[in-house]
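Our preliminary data section would be incomplete without showing what the modeling component actually yields. Below, a chain of 585 amino acids is followed by its predicted structure, encoded as tokens that our downstream tools consume directly.
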Amino acid sequence: MRRPRMMAAVALLAASTALLTGCTSTKGGGGTTTSSGTSNAAFGAAINNVVNPSTKQGGTLKLLAQGDCESWDPARTYLGWCWNMQRLVSRGLVGFSKVNGSKPEIVGDLATSLGKHNADFTEWTYTLRPGIKFSTGKAITPQDVKYGIERIFATDVINGGPASYYLTQIAHPKNYLGPYKSGDLNTITTTSDSITFKLSSPFADFDYLMALPAASPVPYKTEGGTGYVGATYGKKPVASGPFVISSYTQNKSVTFVRNKYWTQSSDPIRKPLAKEIDLTIDSSPADIDQKLKSGTYDAKMDIDIGSALQTSVLTNANLKKNADDAPTPFNRFFTIYPSVIPNQHCRAAIEYATNKAAILQAFGGPLHGTIAGSVTPITIPGHDASAALYPSGPKGTGDVAKAKQELQACGKPNGFSVKFAYSTPSETGPKVFQAEQTALARVGITITSTTSASSNYYTTFVGSPRNVKNQGIGISIYGWGADFPTGYGFWQAIANGNAILETGNANQPSLNDPKVNAILKNSLAGKATDADFRTLDDQVMKNAVYLPIFFGKTLWYRNPRLTNITCDNALGFGAYDVVNVGVSG
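Predicted structure:
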């Protein structure tokens, strides 16, 4: 899954809760329109609307981040905020026309429309728009799009991005190793203005793969020029979007200037206003807070603002009106392992007894999330904020009486003992463990901590079903956010029986429920509805293998001088949709 950069932060994203990989309603504007915008700055105004609508061109947008992107090669980045930044420089066949609210929308981007598919979703064809060019002035051709996809298969050279989707969905010979070693891939064919993909199996969500940065075109064979081919392309990528990287110093700064060969008439999605965008990397949260508060910089892009500015924002009305505590398409939950706790009633006892309010506080409090009763987050079909198969009480502190009833039903009226896992080093992990230990002790369930270094926590520790059973791990900290906003995109890796792996297992409880599997299979053929995914969530919860804690939120701050600003919940985990932002002074 895609990794929000926020997982590096102390509160929501401490190492103990590092993820394997923000906005709420559909009311109000999209990423490219200002018709529903508002000129009134207010707390949360940019979550669902475009704040300070404007068509004024020019000026320099000054951005901050605590760390650099892992790569500026669109095929090698997997951080949510970096996908958001890629909207500046990269275009795909498909793109997000609406990025805020709870239902992002996609349309043809480089392509004239969404893909045309055959009856069983195994063949997809796209026709390119006329007049589209790279920042070099060269016309973008279907061959360049094909080459960009082929590079993903060169996993010894191009790695770090969401390669697994393309490698599993696009048909290819077993010995195909990408364009550097194997040349052209014959299952992707082109004409002068179209490209056709043959898939290995039905995949109704294929348009969403074409909307990810990894599917951006790359100049055929020449890439970024001499010295910038393959692994080094990210140091000098060629742009297809409205901006181009004019200078880059790794871990220090990136400067984006307008791509003179990009035209508004060829792009139905982006309406850029700024003349230049400067991104400065500053590893000091306190320093970033001060720069934002003073107004010398405009916004932070990678994670929520630091504790100092958070305090100021929440206590100063003039600052608060320029902030947004944006819901994100991410859920924090625990895994409860059937291999160690085989009785569903025993697992349900844990669901009822958990004090979600105390755990949310350990993660930083209500500023960082709202208590969840189900797994599906916003933007994903089937999301229902009110759903709760195991209600935890009006204050989210748990239902002790119901937990004790479940213990009676599972034959453990006095409780039982089990291990609770989290990764290290961590400040949050021990606090979460202590909160859960206190909550479960109320019904006689005893937990002891077991830890693993974050480097192998999700691979060979809780990511290994064998190790989970051998170690007697009954509960672990987990979290998940989808790479693209569909039911399959969220659930496949964590709930389908066919996704169980010996190591690196994202389906941590090794759930293999026929009803869940069937809905996911039907979705590949375009036969699953929003209601089906609501049913899927309910079915997963009936198994009591995931214990939802909270739906994530992130606090962002915007300089009052910014115009056309809204949240990017499709790609950026609620960070501002930077490609369309302007400046008023």
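The mean pLDDT is 92. Residues 5-20+22-291+558-583 form a domain with the D-Maltodextrin-Binding Protein; domain 2 fold (CATH 3.40.190.10). Preliminary results of this kind motivate Aim 1 of the renewal.
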